[in-house]
Amino acid sequence: MINKDKFKKDLKKRRQARGRAKIFGTQIRPRLVVFRSLKGIYVQLINDETGTTLASASSREVKGRDLKKTDVAFKIGELIAAKGIKVGINQVIFDRAGYKYHGRVKAVGEGARKGGLKF
Q1: The domain containing residue 52 runs over which residues?
Q2: Which of 56, 59, 52, 11 is nearest to 33 (CA)?
Q3: Separation CA 18–CA 40 (nearest Å)
Q4: Helix, strand or coil, per DSSP, at residue 49
Q5: Which of 14, 37, 77, 94 might form a disulfide with 108, Cβ 3.0–4.6 angstroms?
Q6: Could you give the number of structural domains in the chain?
Q7: Are 26 and 20 in contact (CB under 8 A)?
């Protein structure tokens, strides 16, 4: 019998593989990848043609201990948008990495849109 946690991880990896098979970032329109952990949230703009990270942001860069996790995620979205525009990127492909589009992942997307990125 398969362990319940292992089964969940396998399902997540399958969701990631299905999503990544359809998504490919370029220099003009890179992939906006979200990684969510229990403590923080990390976002990167990735060019898949060259395999390079163009810009990144994490919850460690946001000041303020009294903020909720979704508020921090929204600020991270705005921050990655500012960094992307500074590098010359205004269109991205949103890669939610197998996570549901709600909560912190949705907050990153909304923050990036408010910051000026187009999906």
Answers
A1: 4-115
A2: 56
A3: 25
A4: coil
A5: 77
A6: 1
A7: no
Per-residue model confidence as pLDDT tens digits over 57-92 = 999 998 877 899 999 999 999 999 999 999 999 999
Sign of CA dihedral 53, 59, 63, 69: positive
Structure tokens at 95: 């890669």
Distance from C-alpha of 74 to C-alpha of 58, rounded to nearest angstrom: 11
The tokens for 69 are 């996790």
CA dihedral 89, 63, 59, 31 (to 10 degrees): -10
How far apart, in whole angstroms, are the C-alpha atoms of residue 107 and residue 71?
A: 7
Contact (CB, 8 A) for 41 and 104: yes
User: Tens digit of pLDDT for each residue in 19-52?
Assistant: 777 778 888 899 999 999 999 999 999 998 899 9
Chain centre to alpha carbon of residue 82: 14
**Structural tokens at position 115:** 């910051």
**Reported pTM:** 0.85
